[in-house]
Structure formats: structure tokens, C-alpha cells
């Protein structure tokens, strides 16, 4: 090792310039040593901490400043001829040139870039396509940590597709991936670092949109099923209906709550009121071809329900009680009656007992509404058990019974129609009708052929006036229940 050092020292001692920067040596017994020393300093001043003014000049600039440095752009011409890629240092009114060695670094002032000489050309220090690989943390105007290894504080960000001209395909996809189905992949939106909204795959592979007003309680607004693409609105949607993909049942119980969603038959899942269920079905659903059922639990309900608009879809809407013991489900309404279908609405009511007070009707079809019923027990009514008016239609689709008094059992007027055909009607306890069993007026129509009436009733059999009609297909004047003869007047028809 010592001999190697001695050999190197001996070699350099016999040279006139240094190996790398070509700095002039002071020779032994040299006169005017300061000249050689100063020249070496000038070379150091030109090359150390190299920052050039420009790298785009192939010929000398017009009025360079003393000490200015340039990288000669190939191919050099004029005063720069034959000096390609060299460092041109302007001093004492002339340029001195220095040939770079591989690995030399220069900062280009007018561009703000750092270059390195690769032996042939000056190239960007980090290469034409710089790479950062396996960086554990990165903070942009922020401090990254173990929880947030990528952290940025900025006001805007831009991601642009790599064009075809640049070797890309013109597309841009931002890809996020989670470990498994049960994990979460989401975008979390915050207000002053308090969470307010989240979108993504949260706990499954469906796409969720949820919001929170306190960062603790979350409400899902939209769910898109990954297997079907169907969209649901767990909280409901203003102006947007949920389209059914299967039959749907809503539950109503006397111990329920209208704050529930109605989809579970329990106190914590069922609705409290019938009207709430009707509003959900008619106001928020597209039935498509599927049926909706409103299932009433056993008990007494003091308010019924009104449907005042057509359903959307071809499926039916049924309000049902207890098929085996219909007397266990009682709707005893006072102010507006039990059930009303109006303005094109269609309802099926079955398996319950209906009662009213205060001059209201049990079942009403009005303004083009369609009311069907079966397995119903008609109890005491302050007016009629059923009424059809203004183009409405009431139809029996099953057998039923009468267990209470009323002003009339059937009431039709203003072009309303009641149709009961081929049914068995049981009268229990000899109910009394203060007006008539059938009360028709103002062009109302009742089609009552082929029925079997059991038991007995008190009151007038029919009272038909003002061009109303009762069609019993020739069954005779004693066909309808009652203990008093029926009458017609002012164009009323019976036969």
C-alpha cells in the first residue's frame, strides 16, 4: 500500500496539471508562483458550485457579464465552434472553456433545473423519467406519519390522462383496492376533520353513500347492489321511487312506530299507523309487476287509511289482517271512515272487521278509485258499509259477513258502481239498516247477481232514486235482505 501511494505521488509530481480539474501545479523553483496559483483559483471559481446562465446557446451571447458561465449547445459555432457541451466561462473579456467529466453537475439558472454530464450530453440529474420507489412516507407541505404515510396540504390537485402521443392510451383510472369483502374502501369527507359523508365499499361489495351530522351516527342515502346494479334508497328519496324486484310486505302494529321502516314484524320494526304504510307504498314505490302487502297485526286501529293517487306499476296493493280470525283485527274509524280509494287508486282490503262512527263509511271508492274486499266483517257504521261515488268501483272478491247496524249496507251515487256477484253474505245478529240495505241515487249502479244471503236483516230492502239502478238479474223484489219492501222513484230502476 505504501509503495502504491509513493507511485501515485511520484506520477502526480511529474505532471503539470491535476487529474480531474486540470488545475496547474506550481513547479519546483518556479518563478512568479502567484500566477500559477491564481490561475488555479480562477479555474476553481469557474467550476466549483457550477451554476450556468443558459444551456441553449450555440454561439457566444452578445454582451455576457464578467464571470458568466454557459453550457455550449451542440453544434457550436463562431466563438463556440468545437466546444460542444463544454463550460464556457467569460472572464477578462474572453471565454475560457472547460471540458466536463462524467458525473459533473450543473444548475441551469434560467430553467431552474439541475443537470449531470453522462459523458456525452448534459441530462436531467434524475433522468428523463425520474422515479421514486418504495418511499415509506411522503408529505407535500405537510408532515406524513405512520397513520397517514401520504399527506398533502394543498388547495387543488390535477390528474391528467397520458395521451396517445405521449405513449399512453388517453384514459385515466384512479384505482383503489381493499383486502377483502368485509373490509372498507371509501372516500371520507370531513369538515374541520369531523366526518360528514362517506362513499365507497363499506363492509361489503355494494356501493354505499352515507352521511352524518355528528360524525358518529351515519345514515345511508344510496346503496347500489354489486350483484344486480339495483339502486335502493334506505332513507327514502324525494321524487325518486324504489323499483321493486320482489314482493314487499310492510307491517303495521298497535305497538309499532312510524319512525320504523315497516319491514320487520316487531315493535321495533313495524309502523304504527295504516296511513304511513299506504303513503310509503303509493308515494315511494314502483311496484313494477310485484305485489305490495300491508299486514295489520291483531288489535284495534282507530284510524284507517286513504289512497288518493294511482299506484305505479301493475302489482296490487293489499291491506290484510287475520285470515283465520278476522275479528281480531278491528279498524274502528271515526272522522274519515276506514278505507278510501280515490283519484285512480286501487286497494284490496281483507281479513278484518270494519266499524265507523260519526256518519262515515267503512269502504269508499271515489273519483275513479277501485276498492276490492273479501273476508271482511262489516260492523256498526254511522253511515254505509260501502259507498261508490263519482265513477268509483267497489267490488267483493270473496265472501264476507255483516255483524253490525248501518244506515245502509250498499250506497252508490254520482255514477259510482258496486259489484257483488256469486258471493255468500252472512248476516249475524239480524243487523238493522235505517235507510235501506241498498241505497242508490244520482245514476249510481249496483250489480248484485248470484249471491247467497244467510241470516236475516231489518229495514228496507232497497231505495233507488234519481236514475240509479240495482241489477239482480231478475232475482225478484225479495232477493235482498230486509223486512220491508224496497222502493224506486224518479227514474230509479230495480230488476
TrEMBL record:
Pfam families named in the record: DUF2793
Protein name according to UniProt: DUF2793 domain-containing protein
Gene3D superfamilies recorded: Single-stranded right-handed beta-helix, Pectin lyase-like
Coiled-coil regions listed: none
Annotated InterPro entries: DUF2793, Pectin_lyas_fold, Pectin_lyase_fold/virulence
Amino acid at each position: 500500500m505504501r509503495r502504491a501511494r509513493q507511485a501515485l505521488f511520484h506520477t502526480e509530481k511529474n505532471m503539470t496539471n491535476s487529474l480531474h480539474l486540470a488545475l496547474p501545479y506550481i513547479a519546483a523553483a518556479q518563478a512568479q508562483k502567484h500566477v500559477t496559483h491564481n490561475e488555479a483559483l480562477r479555474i476553481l471559481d469557474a467550476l466549483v458550485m457550477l451554476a450556468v446562465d443558459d444551456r441553449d446557446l450555440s454561439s457566444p451571447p452578445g454582451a455576457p457579464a464578467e464571470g458568466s458561465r454557459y453550457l455550449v449547445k451542440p453544434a457550436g459555432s463562431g466563438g463556440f465552434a468545437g466546444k460542444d457541451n463544454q463550460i464556457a466561462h467569460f472572464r477578462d473579456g474572453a471565454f475560457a472553456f472547460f471540458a466536463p467529466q462524467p458525473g459533473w453537475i450543473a444548475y441551469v439558472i434560467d430553467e431552474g433545473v439541475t443537470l449531470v454530464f453522462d459523458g456525452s450530453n448534459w441530462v436531467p440529474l434524475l433522468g428523463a423519467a425520474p422515479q421514486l420507489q418504495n418511499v415509506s412516507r411522503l408529505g407535500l407541505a405537510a408532515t406524513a406519519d405512520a397513520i397517514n404515510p401520504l399527506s398533502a396540504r394543498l388547495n387543488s390537485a390535477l390528474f391528467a390522462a397520458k395521451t396517445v402521443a405521449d405513449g399512453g392510451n388517453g384514459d385515466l383510472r384512479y384505482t383503489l383496492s381493499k383486502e377483502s369483502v368485509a373490509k372498507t374502501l371509501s372516500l371520507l369527507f370531513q369538515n374541520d376533520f369531523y366526518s360528514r359523508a362517506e362513499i365507497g365499499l363499506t363492509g361489503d361489495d355494494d356501493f354505499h353513500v352515507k352521511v352524518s351530522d355528528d360524525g358518529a351516527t351515519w345514515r345511508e342515502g344510496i346503496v347500489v347492489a354489486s350483484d344486480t346494479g339495483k339502486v335502493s334508497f334506505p332513507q327514502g328519496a324525494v321524487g325518486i321511487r324504489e323499483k321493486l324486484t320482489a314482493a314487499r310486505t310492510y307491517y303495521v302494529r298497535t305497538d309499532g312506530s312510524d319512525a320504523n321502516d315497516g319491514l320487520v314484524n316487531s315493535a321495533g320494526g313495524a309502523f304504527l299507523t295504516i296511513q304511513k304504510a299506504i303513503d310509503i307504498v303509493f308515494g315511494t314505490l314502483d311496484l313494477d309487476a310485484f305485489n305490495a302487502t300491508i299486514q295489520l297485526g291483531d288489535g284495534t286501529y282507530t284510524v284507517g287509511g286513504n289512497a288518493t293517487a294511482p299506484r305505479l306499476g301493475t302489482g296490487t296493493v293489499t291491506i290484510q289482517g287475520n285470515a283465520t280470525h278476522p275479528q281480531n283485527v278491528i279498524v274502528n274509524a271515526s272522522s274519515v271512515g276506514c278505507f278510501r280509494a280515490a283519484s285512480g287508486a286501487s286497494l284490496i282490503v281483507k281479513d278484518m272487521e270494519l266499524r265507523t262512527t260519526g256518519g262515515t263509511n267503512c269502504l269508499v271508492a271515489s273519483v275513479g278509485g277501485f276498492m276490492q274486499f273479501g273476508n271482511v266483517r262489516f260492523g256498526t257504521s254511522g253511515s254505509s258499509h260501502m259507498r261508490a261515488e263519482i265513477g268509483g268501483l267497489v267490488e267483493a272478491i270473496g265472501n264476507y259477513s255483516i255483524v253490525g247496524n248501518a244506515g245502509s249496507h250498499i250506497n252508490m251515487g254520482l255514477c259510482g258502481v258496486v259489484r257483488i256477484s256469486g258471493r255468500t253474505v252472512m248476516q249475524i245478529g239480524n243487523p238493522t239498516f235505517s235507510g235501506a240495505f241498498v241505497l242508490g241515487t244520482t245514476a249510481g249502479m249496483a250489480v248484485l247477481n248470484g249471491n247467497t244471503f244467510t241470516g236475516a236483516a231489518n229495514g228496507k230492502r232497497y231505495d233507488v232514486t234519481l236514475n240509479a239502478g240495482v241489477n239482480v238479474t231478475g232475482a225478484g223484489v225479495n232477493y235482498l235482505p230486509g223486512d220491508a219492501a224496497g222502493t224506486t222513484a224518479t227514474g230509479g230502476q230495480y230488476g
